[in-house]
Description:
Helix content: 40-55%
Number of helices: 17
Distance between the termini: 35 Å
Strand content: 5-15%
Structural class: alpha/beta
Number of strands: 7
Mean pLDDT: 87
Amino acid sequence: xxxxxxxxxxxxxxxxxxxxxxxxxxxxxxxxxxxxFMGSGAVSLRGKAMGMRVIGNDIAKRSKIFGEAVIKNQNxxxxxxxxxxxxxxxxxxxxxxxxxxxxxxxxxxAEVLDNAFAQAxxxxxxxxxxxxxxxxxxxxxxxxxxxxxxxVQDNKMILEGKVIELxxxxxxxxxxxxxxxxxxxxxxxxxxxxEKINRAVFNNGEENxxxxxxxxxxxxxxxxxxxxxxxxxxxxxYAFSTNYSxxxxxLDQILEEKMDVxxxxxxxxxxxxxxxxxxxxxxxxxxxxxxISMGHxxxxxxxxxxxxxxxxxxxxxxxxxxxxxxxxxxxxxxxxSGKRQSENVEYLIVTE
Length: 352
């Protein structure tokens, strides 16, 4: 199996570093990798594939579920029977149907999801997280750009029986495909997603750990427990970019099964981002190698320029700035700043 196949298990996540792994992973040093803003889990999965012991963390449950299902889990996979069990009728709260129809989901899909999540939550870890993650990938795969802010009009037309008209009006082949795909039987799509997730489940011989914490609390805990971390990877939300807790709020509400989910994930998305980075780096001095991902718009005051962040890092450790060739995900910084993709840059800062 080609190594790249395992990355098909990742979430189609805003800001995912899946396409940049070949630029990031050569800078790993030592045996233990800390991934403090795990996000899609791309960097953690690369570290695991390289035989490193991975300690992953993210404030969001969506990332923790991936970590438990794929990074920490070494040998449990999703069987065909597991997928079929999600369709066995069981008592559930009807949370999705009550709160997200028809704004986000069609009634039939909401009914399937409510039942499936209830079934998944009956299982023991890591099978529970595997099945929850299966449903997360299924949901995100049905959304345009993984977003929940679009699709209301699409659902309205589908409910009115105007499916052909809707597909013909779609602005792109990709969007038309998403619409058509959303109408396919859930079982068939879940089986296809199951295969992708199972390919990423393997034993790398290490006891990998996953946490769901604020980044500052995570660092305090690791130092208190005297955890050895050789390389730590920082991929915080980019300053003035799309806020993840807003973009994925519906998903977070579904996973927590409550509407009042509030994630405090704005520390690096505000004007005081550089001050918060300085605090973060001060708490990380005991870790030998740092790798920091960041980006900004070259003709805007939005975001943090490479030289600015480098100067903060160099207060603590010698470091170098590396610019990368990369197009940012649509609806992230490019759309937020109102600039073209070509005017945005991605860079790494790596300590010596």
